[in-house]
Amino acid sequence: MSGYAALPDFEILNGRELDGLIVNDKFVSYYQVESALYNYPKVFEAGVIVNSQNGESVILKVYLALEDSFSAKEEREQYCLKVEQYIRNSFSFKMPIRVLIREKLPMTRSGKILRSVLRDY
């Protein structure tokens, strides 16, 4: 049986809540997903978090900053759907995925994604 959970649901992984999620009894870090996204066309920056609403539904939120912009809203929506499918195929995610495109992602001075800021982004 396949399943997924945000790490706060697993008390045995205390201290790693902000690092990733469990998919089919396997830990998948946000860094793994972001690294895969950097290989996807047009992706300049990528940030991934899990957002749980009221402790019930878990949504994987993917924030992207792209090298090129889109001229039409339909192109942008198609691109987001393709990215979502790419992530599903790469990691066997069954959870809802939401792809959001931003002009720039929040980063530290050393170039790391600020996931704490993405939660409110």
UniProtKB/TrEMBL annotation:
Residues annotated as coiled-coil are none
Q: What superkingdom does the record give?
A: Bacteria
**AMP-binding enzyme C-terminal domain residues:** 32-112
Q: Which GO terms describe its biological process?
A: secondary metabolite biosynthetic process
Gene3D superfamilies documented for this protein? 3.30.300.30
Q: Does the keyword Transcription regulation apply?
A: no
SUPFAM superfamilies associated with the record: Acetyl-CoA synthetase-like
Q: Which molecular function term from Gene Ontology is one that the record holds?
A: acid-thiol ligase activity
Give UniProt keywords alphabetically.
Ligase
Q: What is this protein called?
A: AMP-binding enzyme C-terminal domain-containing protein
Q: Name the source organism.
A: Dehalobacter restrictus
